[in-house]
Every structure is written in structure tokens, then in C-alpha cells.
Amino acid sequence: MLHIYNTLSRTKEPFKPAQPGQVRMYVCGMTVYDYCHLGHARMLVAFDVVQRWLRASGLTVDYVRNITDIDDKIIRRAVETGRRIGEVTEYYIAAMHADERALGVQSPDREPRATQYVGDMLDIIGKLEQNGLAYRADDGDVNYAVRGFAGYGKLSGKALDDLRAGERVAVGSAKRDPLDFVLWKAAKPDEPEDTKWPSPYGLGRPGWHIECSAMSKALLGLPLDIHGGGPDLKFPHHENEIAQTEGAFGGTLANIWMHCGPLMVDSDKMSKSLGNFRTIRQTIAQGEAAADQADYAVNPREAEMLRFFIVRNHYRSPQNYAPDNLVDAQNALDRLYQALLNVVPDGSPVDWNSAQAQAFKAAMDDDFNTSGALAALFELASDANRTRSAQAAGQLKALAAVLGLLQQDPASYFQCTTRYSAASLAQGGATASNELDAGQIDALIAARAAAKQARDYAEADRIRAQLREAGIELDDKPGGITQWRRA
Ligand SMILES: [Zn+2]
Q1: How far apart are CA 46 and CA 315, in angstroms?
Q2: Number of other residues whose CB lies within 10 A of the CB of residue 75
Q3: Which pTM value belongs to this model?
Q4: Residue 237 assigned as binding residue
Q5: CA of 29 to the centre of ligand 1 (A)
Q6: How far is the CA of 245 from the centre of ligand 1 (A)?
């Protein structure tokens, strides 16, 4: 039986959806004002693996991941670049979808946008006002009164006073308590017109937290089986969602809270101010991704390496991004693909009674222990290499599909260049400009075949050596076919 670590109870719990067989899962998505970075990649892949495993376990899943398309950062970006809010958000939504496709992340079942649910948000704010949990402040904002909600702090596991100690009240703030947060922001005269909605409190826009209370209830109903998000959302965002939803409707917002761990860069927190900020497209684009195009050409070998890099780590553990770790991930993924290149898989579905599939399942059922599940894949790869069994290779490919891995054609995979090899790192991480392209390589292989045909073995060996010099390894197959791969 599947067990999931619940941030709320701080224990692994047996997973029992409220309606047997049906999972209602809500994950907080992106604020669309910039390109997705590697921390986003981690969140996207982590919950993609979760929903894939729930479905592979025979459950029906309704997976909702929202888009925050109104927010201070979006407004700032729109004003700075002279664009409408909708232009900024459409662009970065398309860019996010391009990143997801590159990483093999399946689209959520529904992807609601905050601006489509302002009416639902105002309904909740009205209920909170009736319940004495919301007040209009002197500056025109409507705030949540945290001291009125007894459960405040239960998710982050902190008492109100401890949480309060970290907060400072801004001078002139109209909040009654430093932890009170904004439900509805009053419009300011200098703000663009497309940031203003009518409300009983005058023109304004919703605070950030209220959108998830509105969208999760409107689309999935309460309680959610799983509510997930990135590590920095536990407090205050998710704490505030609980206060809003449970304060307005009673009951429980979510039975299980899941948070993925942080992604560090060289053991530091990734942040724009530290200058160690990396986007997904910087990491896996074929060449440079154009700065003004949402979509981009992806290097499929590197893109799957990034997914593999994330999946091999347990989703709750901190993960460190460092060049050596990516090289290590690329090498490990190469080993799995090498097995599929050596032995053609038989195309059979997963045999869940096999020892490896059982081990895979036991690992995944233990709070999505993907590193344990990958161990089963490596075992199948050595089986396939050792016994040349098409069935072992077939099981490798079929089980890997559950994790969204190993579905590329192995020969094409190895024909892609990768920046994540020790040699290319030594050259500064760039792909060498004198590297041969596929057309040049094919031409040299044809010339070598012609030389062999003419019994000019010296010339054939010279071409092989020339290719090896350029990092291309040849593999002569029966029937005169020569496969090549980049070392
Ligand atoms: Zn949220």
C-alpha cells in the first residue's frame, strides 16, 4: 500500500483518498513573470512523478495546478517592458509549457488561472468577513486576522508567537497583527487599468494566497486528497490557504500536504541576488535559447539528463546542483541507454510479478522512493547486458516509462552532443565548435565503408581514428551497418 509523508502530521501515512479509487490533487504552480528555473524544474518533475505513480497504481487522478497570472512581480514586469499584463503572462505561460515538454512533464488535467476566479475569491473574503476573520484596514486593503483562527501555525509547526518574532510591521502598516495578510489589495491610482477588478471594497486585486483557496474548492471540492508545492510555500502561503479555507468553510482543506525539497546551487540557495540563478532553458537548450522566444530547440539527451538528475534524488531531500553532479547523472543515464542499445527490448508491458517490478513498486509505494526504484532499473540493465535478454531490456524500458524515462531511440540519443561530460566541462562546459555534425559523421562513415570495400584498410583505420579524435565511437554491426555515438 502507498504511504506518503504528510507535512501536516510529520509522519508517513497510508494513502486513502476520500473517494476510493479517485485522487483529487492540487499543486501550487508558477507565477508567470519570468522563465522557469531549476527549482521549478524540480517541483514540476517531482509532482509529475507523483501523478504518474498514482495513475500507474490504478487510481483515477484529477490533477490541478494553478497559474498565478496577477501579482506584483507580473505588474512590475509589464510596466517595465511597456506591455499589458495579459501579454506578459501569455508569453511566460508558453515558455513554461515549452520547459515542461522538454522535461517530459505531463500536463496537469486542469490549469486554472487566478484571474478567472476573482468572483470565487470575493465570495470567500465575504465569508471570512462574516466569520470575523477579515477586516478592512485604514489603507483600503482587506486583511485576514490570524489571531482569530485557532489552527494558525499547524502546518509549519510553529506557535503564533514564534512566527510573529520573525515579522516586522512596516511603518504605517494598517495591519492589526504583523502576521495578518492581505486578502484584497485596494487599487492605487498609478497602477495599470488591467490590474483592477470591481469588488464590494472598491477597485482592487486579490492577494496571492486567496487564489488557491478559491481554485482548489471550485475545481476539486473539499477536502483535497493531496495538496502540494515547493518547499518555500509551507509558510506563509500554505498556512494562509488553510486559514482562509478552513476559516471560511470549516472542515479540512487537505488530508495530505506534500512539499518537495529545495534545489541548491553549489550548496547555496539559488537566488537572483547571488548570481547563481539558472533557468531550465539555459541548462538544456540546443545552443542558446533566444531571449524573446517562448519555445526553443531542446537537446533531448541533456533534457532527459536533467529529469533523471531530479528523479534519482528523493523528492523531499535537498538537492545540490553542481556541474559534477550533472556529469554524474548524464553518465548514469548513458549506462541505461547503453543497455537498450546493446539489446533490443522486446516491447512487452511491465510484468508486475517479476522480482524487479516488485522491488520498483515497493520503493515507489514508500513515499515515492525514486532512487530505490531506479536501483531496479540498473539491475535490469546489467541483466540485459549480461544475458542479452530482450525480455530484460523490455522490462527496463517498460518500467522506466512509469518514471517518464528511457523512451528515446537509443541510437539517436547517443548521437546528441552533451555538455555534461567530463571532457566538455574541462573545455568550459561548452560544446566544442569544431565538433562534427551528424551529416559530416555519416559522410566519413560512408567513406570508411567505401575504403573497406576497396580493401584499403589503412584508409578505413585512418578514418576511424579521425572520428575517435573527434569523440565519435563506431560500432560495426552485422550486415555492414555501422552505428556511431558521441563519447
Ligand atoms: Zn497556492
Answers
A1: 6
A2: 18
A3: 0.90
A4: yes
A5: 7
A6: 12
